[in-house]
Sequence to fold (801 residues):
Amino acid sequence: METSYLDYAMSVIIARALPDVRDGLKPAHRRILYAMGQMGLRHTARHTKSAKVVGEVLGNYHPHGDSAVYDTMVRLAQPWNMREMLVDGQGNFGSVDGDSAAAYRYTEARLTAIAEELLRDLEKETVPFIPNFDGTRQEPTVLPALLPNLLLNGTVGIAVGMATSIPPHNLGELCDAIVYLIGHSNASVEDLLQFVKGPDFPTGGTIFDQSEITRAYATGKGAIVTRAKAEIVEEGKHGMQIVVSEIPYAVNKASLLEHIAELVSAKKLEGIRDLRDESSKGDVRIVIDLKKDAYPKKVLNRLFHSTELQTTFHVNMLAIVDGIQPRVLNLKGILEEYVKHRKEVVRRRTQFDLTKAKERAHILEGLKIAILHIDEVIATIKKSEDRDDARVNLIKKFKLTEPQANAILDMRLSQLANLERLKVETELKEKLQLIRDLEALLKSEAKVLGVITEELKGLKAKYGNPRRTEVKVAGVKEFRAEDLIPNVSAIVMVTKDGYLKRVPPDTFKTQGRGGKGVIGLTTKEADVVEHLFATMTHADVLFFTTRGRVFQLKAYDIPEASRTAKGQALVNFLNLSPAEKVSAILPISDLSKDEKYLVMVTKYGVIKKVDLASFANVRKAGLIALKLRGDDLLTYVKPSTGHDEVLLVSRQGQAIRFREKDVRAMGRVAAGVRGMKLAKKDDIVVGMDVIGKGCSPDSCEVLAIMEHGYGKRTKLNQYRVQGRGGSGIKTAEVTPKTGKLITAFVINAKAPPTDLIVVSKNGQVIRLPYAEIRIAGRATQGVRVMRFKEEGDEVASVTYV
Fold:
């Protein structure tokens, strides 16, 4: 079993799956090209039925299945697979959409002009020949291959225990690199990369990251990121579009379109309105129409991330060296093997030409002797009994060789004319000069390399064409969520029972003051909306808990949901303990650079100031933000500059305003100091805000909202600055009609919020213009802001946008 499997494995490796480093061909490809050459199917000949070619290959060289041979030949004729086609096909040879070619009885083929460069000088004994499978013919073990085909067209093959994956390249770049290598044998891979910029795929596209390209060519292995060529355009009636004009190598266009359509259908790709394939023969054009509210760059990034518009070509430059050994080679190694092969071909070709020249010169020397002594030659032939006797007599008399005597006997009388005699002498002179030149070439490796160089320059001049694949020096960065998600406004809701969701601000349309609003979410029985804030989707959000801990999430990590959806449980996102709840939420990315501290306030009026830098790296398990005493809970966290003022408001309608400097900065685990003295037993802090420099007593106001839907605005200048730790002054008249205070904010009237959003405990939401709330004095009840649909409902949470 072991012996049999090893034999099989070696057969697959050497004789089927891997290319020879010298001509870049696998046995099947080599036999097809050789058979077509033997059939005379040059690029100038008429196309011949593919069935005839397949039959020739099967019958004489490659005893395998006809479909295998035909499929191999078809690939050699496909411009999206071959950088330079080796077969010129006529008829249906498939498409980039994965359509198969027509049956071989319908299609026709011949060699391309460039394919003939692989076969050039084959008749001059430049390569070894072996018997075919039944011993009736000879076939080459390798082609002379003036074309550097291994890198030019690349290859993919899977053998036993090994595989090869070599990308296509640009012919002009390869010729320049080989010429440079011939002149600089000590050149490094980096030197050669001045010429070979990277893979040059027949389908174009863009490749990224010079460092990864260099690594692939230096080691023979690497991963090169390839992207489609896509641009964002604005088309009159269609709006914004993404137009794809080139796709990555080896990507099936039809499958790509199908995949995009599936992602759109599954709502994994947002913002796409329509998808069309407007490709024509030879040109790719995929048009993606975008919705009006879509962000084109984000949609394109999502396409690159989720579909085959961006792929990775894994380079593994494995090839058969010396006809027997599979080896991974770097760029220099492959080019050196090519030069080594070409040197051998040039030597063998030169030796063949030298032998032929010597043979012809030898004959010409005999003819020259015969012409000089023509009368004696004629007399000798006339005296002879027959041709054989004449040959013997000529050899004896004129000291000729047998081939010379035969040539003299084959002479026509017309060759005795003066001009014909001159032709013999001139040709002999030319042959002798040719012999000297060929012998000098064989003796000098430099001259052999010079011949190779000139041939490569001629090859580039004849067949070279511009690069199709663009090379970007910088690497394509890994897609972060920010690249795929638009940075837009969002409203985040968190309920008392720990459910959160994110909705667009325009979910709630603006209504008049005193309206009933709309249902904003479906809450569980006895659950209420507790936190509501507006931010941007790319913002970092800090979640402070009642236990004094802090966690961090990106706003886009909060699931987007419909207006009436309940949302998802916070425990799915934060590592909360059973009795722990989120008490304060801070979108930290929205902070200004002047804000350097976080001011924290507890339920019972304890205040603490911490340097913002202490929360730069919040672990997944959270960090301690505040050490709590007894049953106290952390309830408010706001940013500050260190030179601001702080306003605390209690549930019973008391408020205190004091300077932030009265609170010194502390470490994360410190407990804090008293901020407000709560006079009544059931009183707690329900409102806290930081008054910044841009907020003067005349321009700012305090917005207070009460639990029965009443609210008011009061000028900040009605609140005098006091010392930290006092019980404050009255900020609202708390009555059974208004209910106790729910929350309070400090608002800058110079740049007031557009709207206020109020949410009830039963999930009712109203969005109303901020300007509709009346300005009133400190000790007043305010005006009705919200009416409730259900009796007993109360205000739960408030935010402004």
